Amino acid sequence: MADSWLDRAPSPAPAVPPVLDPASSPEPDDRADSGYAVPPVPAGPDEQPGPHRAARLRQGSVMTEAPAQRREQPDAVTPAPASADPASTGQASSSPAGTAPDGSAASPELMAARGRWSRVGWMFAAIWLVYLAQPVTKLWSDPNLTRRYLGLADLIAFAAVFILTFAAARFLRDPRNRHRSRRIGLAIIVVETVFVGLAYAALGSSATGLLIYVSVMAVFLLPTRAGWVVVGAFVAASLIIPWAQGWTVDGTMAFQIFVSAVAAWGVSQVIQRNAQLIEARNEITRLALAEQRNQFARDLHDILGHSLT
Questions:
Q1: 228 compared with 58, residue with greater pLDDT
Q2: Rounded to an integer, what distance in angstroms lies between the CA atom of residue 160 and that of residue 302?
Q3: How far is CA 146 from the centre of its chain?
């Protein structure tokens, strides 16, 4: 029995896995080749497929770009009223030559209206030349050649100045050139009055009809009060000069001078009112666009504020 116990072989010990030294053992190419079960690593936010990744990317772009957009966003601009003084608003006045009286750029519609009047102004003036038919006929039949040709030259110069004045109406009626145009207008009235005086020397009482042209130019070029003062002086001259020279006093000529001046003044007022209406419409459009820009800026500010919070 003892021999049987001694002859029994000892039971083998349980197998122990060898301990590998990480420094001495080669590292496998793949973690799965090491013989150990490696649990899968969950994908990060940027590696998750599908809409979750797109949502996170959008959120990150908003968080990083929103501050820069807020820094670059211009402040809302509130338009100043048209009657505001640049000195009171703290802004320097730098109106270029192509601006309107209020400092804003002249509108294309207003420039087109002035251009149309410049093109048809000389035709408007040419209609009035019908009153020169009688003086020209009288001079052409004058046997005195010196008086004939000097008188015709005087009438041609008078008519040329009259037509050129209305052809340059775009410049002379421009409010930006108000002071200069008034001086030019006064000089034109003086020159035309001199031509009328020379015509009196060549034509006699027939030269009274030329006062109609000068009266029309006076109400067109000069301020309203000064223009009507000149018209009144010419009406009086049409009665006083024939009476002083012993000619026949024609009251109908004085009436024609007054009526022609009234008609020319009405035309000038219509042109001025149309220009003012165009400017008012453009101002309304400009204010509406400024309000739209302010509303867009406020909406953008609210959207960025909500996205950051």
A1: 228
A2: 66
A3: 55
Find all residues with CB under 8 Å of 79, minimum gap 6, and list them. 286, 287, 290
Domain range summary for the chain, segments of one domain joined by +: 108-287
Over range 127-146, report the average pLDDT: 87
Which tokens sit at 228? 């009507």
User: Both tokens of residue 140?
Assistant: 């052409």
Cα 232 to chain centroid distance, Å, stands at 40
Tell me the two tokens of residue 226.
């000064």
Distance CA 85, CA 96 (A): 17
Distance of CA 72 to the CA centre of its chain: 27
CA atoms within 13 A on the CB side of 88: 6
Q: For residue 70, what are the CA distances in angstroms to 279, 302, 304?
A: 36, 11, 8
| 166, two tokens | 């209305």
Indicate whether 157 pLDDT > 90: yes
Residue identified by tokens 């030329």 is: 210
Whether the CB-CB separation of 210 and 195 falls below 8 Å is answered with yes
Task: Average the pLDDT over 178-183 and give the result.
Answer: 81
Cβ neighbours of residue 193 closer than 8 Å, sequence gap 6 or more: 214
Quote the CA–CA distance of 199 and 138 in Å, as a whole number.
12
DSSP string for residues in 178-241: HHHHHHHHHHHHHHHHHHHHHHHHHHGGGGGGHHHHHHHHHHHHS-HHHHHHHHHHHHHHHHHH
Angle at 47 between CA 307 and CA 305, to 5 degrees: 5
At residue 97, what is the residue type?
A
pLDDT digits (tens, 9 = 90+) for 237-288: 999 999 998 888 888 889 999 998 998 888 878 877 877 788 888 889 888 8
What is the DSSP annotation of 33-64? GGSS--PPPPP-TTT--THHHHHHHHHHHHHH
